[in-house]
Amino acid sequence: MIVRRNLIVVVVLLLLSFPCASIAQDDVTTQNGPSALNGAWITGPASNPLSFLNGPAYRTFGSKMPYDVPDFHPAGQLDARLPRWINLETEERLRLEGYSNGSFKPGNDDSYWLNRFRFQIDLYLNRWLSVSSQVQDARPFFEKPPIGPPNENRWDLKEAYVQLGDPEKQWASLRVGRQLINYNNALIANSEWRNQGRSYDAAVLNLHRDAWRLGIFAASVVIPQASGVSPHEEGNNIYGLYGGIDNIIRNSRLEPFVLWRVQPSVAVKNATTGATGKENMKVYGFRFKGGAIETLDYSVQADFETGSDGPNTIRAWSLSGGAGYQFDSNPWHLRIFSQYDFASGDNNPADNTHRTFDTIYPTAHDRFGILDLFGWQNIQSIRGGAMIVPRHRWTVSAQFLEFWLAAAQDAAYNSSGGAIVRNSSGLDGNHIGEETDIYTWYELNRHLNVGAGFGDFEAGRFISTTTNTQFYRGPYFAINFKDAGRAEQR
Q: CB neighbours (10 Å) of residue 56?
């Protein structure tokens, strides 16, 4: 295990030693789940910073080869018969998944189907004004109760906004209403892998001039309900300035940002049982990413959190770095990638300082493996893997990850920010465990793809001692269909 860990560290350092050679909502290409720009697919998860799409994903629409399956796009065909100022979009996703030892409870097994259907109407009233609305129906089948969000979200209003200007074509645009926000997948995004995803009631101003970009937003996250129109929580708000400066170094982007999060009620550390207080937290950070020597891409991010949770002071930080290198001369376009993640924890439960990093509203899928067991809180993680393309628009990826607690007296946290298990004595070590994944995606045509994966987590001393669980395993199989209609050509 030690040799394998050291080997992954060496790969990270070697990749990052290469010489270094991208709209304000930078991660907009991932906002519709598996779809990339112009209706093309991203064949794989895209939530970790190993490429300009923030994942080991491969943008298959670069291939000029014909598709293997005839195309089918009913919304686009219907749009062709409608006035040009009307656009219809549809999306359907069916996923089979399961797990063994869920929530790290021996014998807690389940398998079920998840179905998600979306229908959207866009009205282009003129070249600078448009209105969009989207309804969503997300349901599980054959899942053990209790059933509710994030798997069940029946006939919700997913999006409803007015947009002034076009962020792709004009230097300023404003979007107001219920919408998706995806500036930085690690901190504030829409978590599309979840069955219901995430949306925000927000006002977003995007500015873009030459190499300079700035997003200014005020948002309240929508709290999903099992059925009906989901509300947001009053007073639970996030505000932000998210910048972008292109080509400080060739083919790079520097993204400085400031976020301000307020919540009316959060748990207060080192106080009477059940005590709560108001949160006032600020996040300062940057992400620097880009490409060099054509086939190398990299990303580095650092964040610092300060402020208060009631009477407690917030002092937390995180660091992430990753790189990927593609061997274009290889007939299967072999790509290797590796990544290191750190998020601070709290080793002193008795003081009045909150040191556990808050990952806010991330797109968590695959940042710490495809099983989505852990979040970017009180964790150290090393990751390495490879991807091949056996056939055009078909990718196969394999990866290994190893996890440790950053602070042994703090908890291990899941991808939603909840504590999985805590041992304040710190006597059970800090090794969480290791995960091995294999997953594949195949783009059948411009609007349809399929994917499958399997993850195996082997518990380390911390998890096995505190939960009496030795492993967690789970497969998935997914079919994705997205037809953005006339919007694909705009």
A: 27
Residue 463 CA to residue 295 CA, distance in Å, equals 38
Angle at 197 between CA 191 and CA 203, to 5 degrees: 85
Other beta carbons less than 10 A from residue 50's beta carbon? 29
d(CA 388, CA 372): 23
**Which pLDDT score is estimated for 41?**
41
Tokens of 420: 């999985």
pLDDT at 51: 35
Task: Say if domain 2-489 classifies as CATH 2.40.440.10.
Answer: no
Work out the burial of residue 386: count CB atoms within 10 Å of its CB; fewer than 13 is exposed, 13-18 middle, 19 or more buried.
Answer: middle
The CA-atom distances, in angstroms, between 345 and each of 324, 373, 406, 420 are 28, 17, 6, 14
Q: What residues have CB less than 8 Å from 241, skipping those under 6 apart?
A: 214, 215, 216, 257, 258
Phi, psi of 213 (to 5 degrees): -140, 145
Strand partners, 463: none
- Identify whether the C-beta of residue 56 lies closer than 8 Å to the C-beta of residue 48: yes
CA distance readout (Å), 480 to 7, 90, 222, 486? 36, 11, 24, 19
Q: How many CA atoms lie within 13 A of 168 on its CB side?
A: 8
Instruction: Identify the pLDDT of residue 297.
Output: 82
Residues of the chain with pLDDT under 50: 1-59, 61
How many whole angstroms separate alpha carbon 283 and alpha carbon 325?
31
Look at the pTM and tell me if it is higher than 0.85.
Answer: yes
Q: Residue 268 has what pLDDT?
A: 83
Please give the angle made by the CA atoms of 142, 147 and 153, to the nearest 5 degrees: 100
pLDDT recorded at residue 299: 87
- Please report the pLDDT score of residue 36 as a whole number: 34
Distances (CA, A) of 348 to 173, 269, 353, 391, 404: 46, 10, 8, 52, 18
Structural contact between residues 87 and 489, judged by C-beta atoms closer than 8 angstroms: no
What residues does each domain of the chain span?
2-489
